[in-house]
Structure formats: structure tokens, C-alpha cells
Amino acid sequence: MLNAIALATKSSLRASPHHAKAFFSSSTRSLARNKVLTIESMNDAVKNVEYAVRGELALKAESLRVDLAQKKPLPFKRVIGCNIGNPQQLYQKPITFFRQVVSLCENPDLLVPKNREALLKLYPMDAILRAEMLLRDVISVGAYSHSKGVPSIRRNVAKFIEKRDGVPANPEHIFLTQGASSGVQTILQVITKNHHTGIMIPIPQYPLYSATLSLFDATPVPYYLDESHQWALNMDDMEASVKEARSKGTDVRALCIINPGNPTGQCLSEENIRQVIDFCHRERIILLADEVYQTNIYQPDRKPFHSFKKILHQMGEEYKDVELVSFHSISKGMVGECGRRGGYFEMVGIDEDVIDQIYKLVSANLCPNVQGQILVDLMANPPQEGDESYPQYQEEVGAIYESLKRRAVKLATCFNGMEGVTCNEAEGAMYVFPKISLPQKAIEAAKKAGKEPDNFYCLEMLDATGVCVVNGSGFGQAPNTWHLRSTFLPEEHLFDEFCAKLEKFHAQFLAKYKD
Ligand code: DCS
Q: Could you tell me which residue ranges the Aminotransferase class I/classII large domain spans (predicted)?
């Protein structure tokens, strides 16, 4: 491996006109054997991490973007990143009120009295008042905050949860985070005692979970979602999975659940949620509920969102020992502020001594970024009826929601119309996960190329259309089935064209590899 790298760099040194740059990379690589930190000596757990959402396909998409910028001839004019749930990258407009408040917090000079008259021509009064209130608490966005997050923001999150669930929430049990990702990592780190610690993860799953378990060397205990029943959880399967893991000496301690699902887009029924809580209660398993898509609900009458906390509360005293951590984020919903990195987790029934340890652990990182915390405040406490900004806020959120709902249906319909493809509708989240039966010849061609068949399909799709999706094998899938995950985030005015591209590619792929 090292020789290969050294050889490749040597030839790039010869060929490259940018001599200094090539020499620098060559010297750092070819001398690697003399270094303390090498690919062999480094942390194996890091090397074992796999994260398909930003894997081979995403890297190839990046290099195609460079080719387009250099005007190389390609069969498409732009690369469309459907590999990641990143709405603003695909031009979703940020919520105006949120950006108004954020910009005032960033530039407090705008708030001084002498600028007020000019300011009021650009900003509504409620945005100004909110920024002033936030700045009273944080002093400056450039200051470290409390390590759990700004206390007043945590109180607002608690009120938001109370309003959502009709159940009290304790701000001391709410920690603000840099996106849900860092919250999930913190909690999995705390739960993992050693390699024998088992954490149940869904298959298919969002690879944050498998990647984090690799990093902390915990043992993943997979359970399958049932594609033929709209990706529901099958309790018998889950029981069997715990039993088998425990019989092998794995100390199964926690269950990760993503609701609404990623990559699968299902929204769990109340009945299913009760069964899961009962299962965790019976088996003494901590429930980790990833609820980042709680407002991406597209069939609210038939499949509304129920938080695990609300249902747990409704199940009464008998279940009061259940340990639950739930995660939320500013990256999803209609907010879509992924790059700002904000989120929170709430702990219910977690031992106070453990909470103190978590507090100590997050304190070592000083605090989550304050800009992200401000967005958490705005998400939890947006403009209310009667506020000056309410009508515009409502209109913007409503327009994004309705459009996502239409695009969700369009994309599932598009895949269902293709030969050999079946696709469950997206009840929630931002993705569809169609099943694709690939011709034997394509499977053989993939094997020859050393690729998973669904990866092979997705790479050919990227080459032909510029559309970047993620192969199902990046999330896990039932043996001998092939899937892909695509977001339905491309802009609505381009959506028909986007679907037509996919249809044309699929037909050509089938013709090329016809059995
Ligand atoms: N949990 C789930 C289920 C997610 O889908 C994501 C992000 C996260 C947590 C973490 O998000 P933040 O850290 O930004 O809050 N979803 C990734 C994905 O599948 N595509 O885009 C990012």
C-alpha cells in the first residue's frame, strides 16, 4: 500500500507543472516510514470507520464538478448532490426571520441607538428584540457559553418539548450540541464500556451509527427493518437479535431508532413505538431516539409524528425506569441550517451521576458553537401568532413543507414507474430508498470491477446524469437485495427534468446489461 502511494506520488512529481506543491506532498508521503504517525501505526478504529454518505460516489461527484468547471465535455451541465440531506446546498432558501436574528447577533453594531432608524427600514422589530434578548444572555457570539449550552436557550428547548408532548421537560437534562451527530457520539461513547458492549442499530441505518460504533469499538447488534411493511420494526426479529447477541456474550445495552427513518423514510405508528418501549423495558435496554426528522412528516393524518418521550409518558408508572435519550437538530425540518451545526439531546430516566459525567465530558470541549445554539433557540421558539414576523415565517415554512411533500410523492412515483424497481413512499424525512433488481450481467460486470452491484449502478448513474445518490450497501440491506438512497431535495422547478434523467438512465442501464 505504502509503495503504491510512493510510486503514484513519484510519477505525479515528474508530471506535475506545480513542482513545489507536488514536491511537498511527495516528501510527506514517501518519507512516511520515518514518521511516528503512519497509516500502519495510527488508530485502527479510525481506519475502520466507513461513511458512505460522503464516500466513493461523493468523491467522484466532486471530481466531476472540477471537470465541469474546467469545461471538460460531459453529458450533463451540473452535478446534482442527492447523496446528502443538505437542503440549502440545493438552494432551499433560509427562513428570513432566523437569518435576521442571526445577522444582528453577529453584528451588534447594528443594534446601537444611532442606527435604529436605518435598521428599522431593513429589520422587523421582533427580530431586533430577539437579537437583543439573545445577546443579553450570550454577551457575544464570540464568547464561550455554558458547556451544556446557554441556560435560557435550554429553557426554551424545554418549553418547546413541553408544548410538543404535553409532558414536563427539565432544562438541566437538555444539552445543546453541534448538530445531532455530536450528541449521538457523546452518548454512544458514554454507553460503551468496552468491545463487549452491544448497541442495536437498524438495517438499513444512517451510517453515523455504524461509524461511531467502529470508532468506540462497540459491537453493533443489527436488527432489520421490514421493507414489505413500510420499513416497520419487527418485534420478533428484535427479540431474536438481542437473544443471539447475548448468547454470544455481548452486553446489549442500547437500541438506536431513527424516526422518521433515514434512509427509509418511514414514520413509526404509535403501536410500533409502544412495542419498542415495552421491549426496552423488558430487556433493560436504553432507548436512543433519533428524531431529527420530526417535522418532515408528509402524511400527518395517517402517519403523524409521535415522540418516544410522549408515548413513554403515556404508558404510565410501570415504565418510569425506562432510560431514554432523544436527539434533535437544526439541520432538518424546514430549518435546514446544516452548516451551522446546532442540535440538542434530552435525557429521561438517566442516572444523575451519569449526567454529571456527561457534563464533565462535554466540558472538555468547552461549549457547542454559539451560532448553532442561537438557531436551536429560533427553531424551538419561532415567531408566534400576533408577532410581526409570523405571517412571513408561516408562509416560508408552509411553502417549503408543501413543496417537499410534492417532491416526495414525485420521486417515489418516478422510481415505481421504472422496470424492476419498487419504492416505499416517504412518510417522512428527506429520502426514498428504492429496491432495484439488477440484471445478472450487471452484477457480473460489477464483480469484475470489484464493486458492490448497487454501487456500480450508482456510479454509472453519476457518470451518465451527474446525479449523485448513495448505494444501499452504504446503509446496510437485506442480503441479495440492492437499493439506492436519493434525497428529494432538487429544486421543484427542475424536478420533472431530474426525474426524466433518472428514468432515461435506468432504461439505458437495463438495455446495456440485458440478460
Ligand atoms: N441523525 C440522522 C438520522 C440524520 O439523518 C442526520 C444527518 C443526523 C442525525 C446528523 O445531523 P446533524 O449532525 O447535522 O444534526 N443526515 C445526513 C444524511 O444522511 N444526509 O445528510 C446528512
A: 124-499
